Amino acid sequence: QVQLVESGGGLVQPGGSLRLSCAASGNIFRLNAMGWYRQAPGKQRELVAIITTPGSTTYADSVKGRSTVSRDNTRNMVYLQMNSLKHEDTAVYYCKLRQSGYDYWGQGTQVTVSS
Fold first, then answer.
1. Residue ranges of the alpha helices (H) in the chain?
2. How many angstroms separate the most distant Cα atoms in the chain?
């Protein structure tokens, strides 16, 4: 019913930047709060950022000050701009939408920070 597709990941050097995108499609009643999560090998999936429909945002301490989450409701898109990337940012990044009591997840996009 609902599909989320992430894109924009890739290989970047420390200190570099990436802009991740999440495209939502299907039977979407309205865009609720959406979240960006990430999971590194051998670690738990963790919250990176949340954005509500009005645009209020919340960030994990690890990315606060160097990441910006935004949305474009006309395109059903959510973005995560990441600057000053560190090795610790290496992970698969996922976006999530909660609708009708169910959490919809994208397939993830790989971010690798390496020299």
1. none
2. 43
